[in-house]
């Protein structure tokens, strides 16, 4: 320990002394200060020193300054203690003219910097009044009996213009007195300090640059292992040891379900290699403390820390000296903890902590992406299995294809090409044959050189793709496709240039596939229930329509189903784009967005060369086809209403089970079917088909059919009101014989 008797001094240079109030200092003193006279140093030697300070290394600069001070102070040797206020460390990197192989570092106690500043008003102080860590550092370099040590602090303005000590200059065994030494140090650093601090700052910038480059290389390595979590964790630990120069490391991932920290990698070896797994409670031990607080824990002496469990050392024979434990976070919180043991050659310092903080960000991001990637891989695998299972049950065998292509029936039904024909009369098993016949009649087979067996297989897969829901099933798809057939023939859409042949093909195919794999529920239900479909498509809107489109493309890509493969590349791409636009157009929400533009187009006249007009017309034709059931006779319309409301009420029942209040039209106990139907026909169907009739006058028969159905629903209200009062539900009345008799009487009176 340094003592007063050894004449060790703690001296404050004159340029750091408080000068007091200006009026207490005479004019001559003020002039002396402004001139900054050199009192004890040789100006030429100081200038020569400044001239020689051209190195870009603080260590080399310190060698030259030490050499100069040793000569000027006539001392045995000189060394400088670097004080880092940010990292709160005292560092010695050069003794006399020797650069140390490894810097001597001491972590300063709290308040050390302020402790040094309290000596500003004193000329000398004994070493034992300094911070204990600095005393230990001086004794480590200057063993007892070596001689007296005079310590002179060098102050400077650093962060936010606060004055703080940046160096402690230690002069060992000098023949000069303390006042002289203080003045020499003061005059030397008056001209050298800025250069020294700038060089130190430059070194720090270079260190940060190197560190950033290292971290970027680390990030590159980490992201190359995203596909295998165990390999990624090994790489994380390898890089963590390398960056901090640690002997060992462990990595714990947080298991939030069981509130455990699970050791996935330790000592660079995956537990999977040894069929072991280490689990600790998420709130116990050093790792548990870091996981709970989210803060870095830097332990200088592991055995003195209350959270350290030395039993592991006793079991393994490994001696833990110090520990740096840091959290690994993603955007949602803690995902794991990394624990580094035994800094080689010393303790983990402030810079190791900074590296750990930066490194943990890359760790968190890479682990999060690896886990997400693994989930995606698992989901893809499950999806493939599901698709295989689905395709197995949906399998269309060759005999089914032959039954369609070699069907002996002529498939001639009276009135099939008239708007008042009811396509639901066609037998279920014969409907694929009628699809082929309609495409033949429209000239698609010959024009596009479509292979009949490929087309038949596609149609059969589409048929199987429709679920057995009450309304949005294969029969509905066939009815919509039949309307497309009627529109193409009766309005002569291709012959008169309203649609190209390719657009006509896309129109017919879109009608056939527009509701494939419909779940019997609406878009809003999918979103409210947070279904898988909603998670896939809700951000784009038209959830179910986008799913129908996806299933259409999937079916088209099924082996042996791509009947469009004879198209040129450009026509193929264009056809798929048309199918996309047309299927998405069946969402009534999309229709209402362009309804006014469609009406304006019809009133001003359809322009065949206007791309927007062609799009509006295609969308209108799709909407009309989708609603074409409402243009049939009352008997058919009532049957369709039964199917629609069976589907609506099933959704309403599901919503009630979910604790939600269904809309009235979905609630079997509240729905007033005739009122809902009248509102739908008047505000939607009539408006849409009137636009169609404006463009194609022959479509007025469709408008008239809807108006007649409106009269039928109006006449049915008396029966609904009567029986609903008696306690029957609206759906029960819809299926009653009394309703049919009432409406038939209305129809007969209209005819008369």
CATH class of the largest domain: Alpha Beta
* Percent helix: 40-55%
User: In the CATH scheme, what's the topology name of the largest domain?
Assistant: Beta-Lactamase
How many strand elements?
A: 12
State the end-to-end CA separation: 126 Å
What would CATH call the homologous superfamily of the largest domain?
GAF domain
Report the CATH architecture of the largest domain: 2-Layer Sandwich
List low-confidence stretches.
1-35, 121-125, 268-275
Largest sheet: 6 strands, mixed
- Global morphology: elongated
**What is the number of domains?**
4
The strand order across the widest sheet is 1-5-6-2-3-4
Based on secondary structure, the structural category is alpha+beta
Strand content: 5-15%
Cα-atom radius of gyration: 44 Å
The number of helices is 27
Please tell me the overall pLDDT.
84
EC number: 3.1.4.-
Cofactor: a divalent metal cation
GO molecular function: 3',5'-cyclic-nucleotide phosphodiesterase activity; metal ion binding
Protein name: Phosphodiesterase
Could you walk me through the main structural features you see in this protein, from its secondary elements to its overall organization?
This protein has 27 helices and twelve strands. The longest helix is centred in the first third of the chain and has 46 residues, at 178-223. The chain has four domains: 4-205, Beta-Lactamase (2-Layer Sandwich), CATH 3.30.450.40; 224-377, 2-Layer Sandwich (Beta-Lactamase), CATH 3.30.450; 394-587, 3'5'-cyclic nucleotide phosphodiesterase, catalytic domain (Catalytic domain of cyclic nucleotide phosphodiesterase 4b2b), CATH 1.10.1300.10; 627-752, Orthogonal Bundle (Catalytic domain of cyclic nucleotide phosphodiesterase 4b2b). It has helices at residues 27-35, 43-52, 58-73, 112-117, 132-141, 178-223, 229-244, 285-293, 311-316, 350-393, 398-405, 431-441, 444-447, 452-465, 474-490, 501-513, 523-528, 532-537, 543-556, 569-584, 588-604, 611-626, 634-657, 673-695, 700-725, 730-734, 737-751, and strands at residues 9-10, 75-84, 89-95, 98-107, 149-157, 163-174, 246-255, 260-266, 278-281, 297-299, 323-330, 333-343. Mean pLDDT is 84; it is low at 1-35, 121-125 and 268-275. With 752 residues, the chain is an alpha+beta fold.
């Amino acid at each position: 320990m340094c003592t007063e008797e050894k004449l060790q001094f703690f001296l404050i240079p004159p340029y750091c002394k408080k000068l007091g109030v200006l009026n207490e200092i005479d004019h001559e003193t003020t002039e002396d200060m402004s001139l900054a006279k050199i009192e004890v140093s040789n100006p030429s030697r100081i200038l020569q020193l400044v001239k020689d300070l051209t190195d870009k290394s603080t260590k080399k600069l310190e060698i030259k300054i030490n050499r100069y001070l040793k000569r000027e102070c006539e001392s045995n040797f000189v060394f400088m203690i670097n004080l880092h206020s940010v990292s709160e460390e005292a560092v010695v990197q050069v003794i006399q003219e020797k650069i140390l192989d490894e810097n001597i570092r001491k972590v300063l106690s709290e308040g050390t910097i302020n402790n040094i500043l309290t000596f500003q008003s004193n000329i000398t102080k004994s070493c034992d009044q300094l911070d204990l860590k600095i005393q230990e550092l001086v004794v480590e370099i200057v063993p007892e009996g070596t001689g007296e040590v005079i310590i002179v602090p060098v102050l400077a303005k650093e962060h936010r213009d606060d004055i703080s000590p940046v160096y402690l200059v230690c002069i060992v065994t000098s023949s000069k007195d303390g006042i002289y030494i203080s003045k020499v140090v003061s005059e030397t650093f008056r001209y050298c300090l800025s250069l020294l601090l700038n060089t130190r700052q430059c070194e720090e910038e270079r260190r940060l640059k190197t560190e950033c480059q290292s971290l970027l290389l680390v990030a590159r390595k980490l992201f190359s292992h995203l596909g295998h979590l165990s390999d990624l964790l090994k790489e994380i630990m390898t890089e963590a040891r390398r960056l901090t120069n640690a002997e060992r490391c462990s990595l714990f991932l947080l298991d939030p379900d069981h509130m455990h920290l699970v050791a996935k990698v330790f000592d660079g070896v995956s537990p999977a290699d040894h069929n072991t797994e280490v689990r600790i409670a998420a709130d116990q031990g050093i790792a548990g403390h870091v996981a709970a607080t989210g803060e870095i824990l830097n332990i200088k002496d592991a055995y003195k820390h209350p959270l350290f469990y030395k039993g592991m050392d006793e079991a393994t024979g490994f001696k833990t000296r110090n520990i740096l434990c840091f959290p690994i976070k993603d955007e949602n919180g803690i995902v794991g903890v990394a624990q580094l043991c035994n800094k080689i050659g010393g303790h983990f310092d402030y810079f190791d902590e900074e590296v750990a903080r930066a490194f943990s960000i890359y760790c968190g991001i890479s682990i999060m992406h690896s886990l997400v990637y693994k989930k995606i891989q698992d989901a893809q695998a499950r999806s493939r299995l599901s698709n295989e299972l689905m395709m197995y049950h949906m399998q269309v065998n060759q005999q089914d294809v032959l039954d369609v292509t070699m069907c002996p029936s002529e498939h001639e039904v009276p009135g099939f090409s008239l708007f008042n024909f009811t396509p639901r009369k066609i037998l279920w098993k014969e409907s694929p044959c009628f699809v082929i016949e309609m495409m033949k009649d429209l000239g698609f087979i010959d024009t596009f050189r479509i292979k009949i067996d490929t087309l038949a297989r596609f149609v059969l897969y589409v048929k199987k793709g429709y679920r057995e829901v009450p309304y949005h099933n294969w029969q509905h798809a066939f009815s919509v496709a039949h309307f497309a057939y009627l529109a193409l023939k009766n309005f002569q859409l291709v012959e008169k240039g309203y649609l190209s042949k390719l657009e006509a093909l896309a129109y017919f195919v879109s009608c056939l596939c527009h509701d494939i794999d419909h779940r019997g529920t609406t878009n809003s239900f999918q979103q409210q229930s947070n279904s898988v479909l909603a998670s896939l498509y809700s951000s784009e809107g038209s959830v179910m329509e986008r799913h129908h489109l996806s299933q259409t493309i999937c079916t088209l890509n099924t082996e042996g189903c791509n009947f469009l493969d004879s198209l040129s590349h450009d026509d193929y791409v264009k056809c798929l784009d048309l199918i996309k636009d047309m299927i998405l157009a069946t969402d009534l929400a999309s229709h209402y967005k362009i309804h006014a533009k469609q009406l304006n187009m019809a009133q001003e006249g359809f322009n065949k060369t206007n791309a927007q007009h062609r799009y509006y017309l295609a969308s209108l034709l799709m909407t009309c086809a989708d609603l074409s059931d409402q243009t049939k006779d009352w008997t058919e319309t009532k049957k369709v209403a039964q199917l629609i409301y069976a589907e609506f009420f099933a959704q309403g029942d599901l919503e009630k089970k979910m604790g939600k209040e269904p809309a009235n039209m979905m609630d079997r106990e509240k729905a007033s079917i005739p009122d809902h139907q009248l509102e739908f026909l008047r505000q939607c169907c009539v408006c849409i088909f009137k636009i169609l009739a404006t463009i194609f006058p022959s479509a007025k028969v469709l408008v008239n059919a809807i108006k007649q159905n409106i009269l039928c629903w109006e006449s049915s209200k008396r029966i609904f009101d009567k029986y609903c009062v008696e306690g029957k539900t609206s759906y029960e009345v819809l299926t009653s014989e009394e309703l049919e008799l009432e409406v038939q009487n209305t129809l007969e009176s209209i005819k008369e």
